[in-house]
Amino acid sequence: TDHSTAIVTTMAPGFETTVPVAANGSFELPDVPDGTHTLTASAPGYLSAELEGVVVAVGEVTVPATQLRAGDADGNGFVNINDITATVASFGAAVAGCVDALGRYVDVDCNGFVNINDITGTISNFGLGSPQPWASP
Known about the structure:
Layout: E1 7-12, E2 15-20, E3 35-42, E4 46-47, E5 49-56, E6 69-70, H1 81-89, H2 116-124, E7 132-133
Parallel strand pairs: 5-7
Antiparallel strand pairs: 1-2, 1-3, 3-5, 4-6
């Protein structure tokens, strides 16, 4: 999976920074002070995922793997009937960068065209809001 549009933000009292996620899903947060942080991962067309209570001390910190929930076609932070309608309206269309001709994120699995898998992915997340808990793949 290409994570090139994803970003990770870390926040702690008096500190906040955002970095891009590499194509392999990795990221580095330089100059992060010791303490307890909240990490948020986000990408266009996905609900953001949040992990609270990440303790940073000297050395590397391992963050659990996460899956962002796809299907937020209109980017409003919720998967609702508007997202399903946009996906259905683009059914069968070829898309570039997961986005249809109207700029809506409708190719949920980002395989280059909108099909039943995208509609199913959107429906399975119907009603969800952002942020969603981080989950292991």
